[in-house]
Amino acid sequence: MAVVNLLDGDMETVGVADWTALNNANLTKESGTRTGGSGSQVLRVAYTDTANPRAIQNGYVKPIRFRFKGWARGDGTYTPSVRVGGVIIWTGTTSTDWQEFDVTHTSTSTSGNMYLETSATGVGWAEFDDIYIAEIDEVIVDGSMEKSTTSDYTS
After folding, report:
1. What pTM, to 2 d.p., does this model score?
2. Cα first-last separation, the chain
């Protein structure tokens, strides 16, 4: 796998300059870390006055398969999600417990963006930590063996 250069994916850079706010999101670094994680900060994406606030980094989508991995949690009311272009590729729960995501996505676009967002439509937030993005060179469907069936294989 070739790692994509995601800036501040571990959320340990001081400030939020590596992230761009969309939908009037309030982006802050909060003290803490995910369960079992290292470091001392997480990225909080909070509602101000526009629904579905997002943090974005540009240019990580091209016609190739990507693996998106990381951790997120809701505030008890709203859910965290990860979006690539117009497609939500992972949605968590409202739980304040840290939730791991590890999803693949094949982009058909020649340009695009990766978003960390929350479903907040009122005062609320989601937090993210240890975000990892990599290009996947494998061509095997279900190479991770995590599907619940064997339908991708024949005997």
Report:
1. 0.82
2. 28
The SS3 assignment for 90 reads strand
Half-sphere exposure of 113 (CA within 13 A, CB side): 13
Tokens of 102: 């590890």
Alpha-carbon distance of 9 to 7, in angstroms, equals: 6
Give dist(CA 128, CA 47) in Å, integer: 15
Confidence of residue 71 (pLDDT cuts 50, 70, 90): very high
Distant-in-sequence, close-in-space partners of 88: CB < 8 Å, separation ≥ 6: 81, 82
Q: Which regions of the chain does DSSP assign to beta strands (E)?
A: 2-3, 20-22, 26-31, 41-46, 54-58, 65-74, 80-84, 87-91, 99-106, 113-118, 125-135
Please state whether beta strands 65-74 and 125-135 pair in parallel, antiparallel, or not at all (unpaired): antiparallel
Taking CA atoms, 153 is separated from 33, 141, 143, 145, in Å, by 39, 9, 10, 11
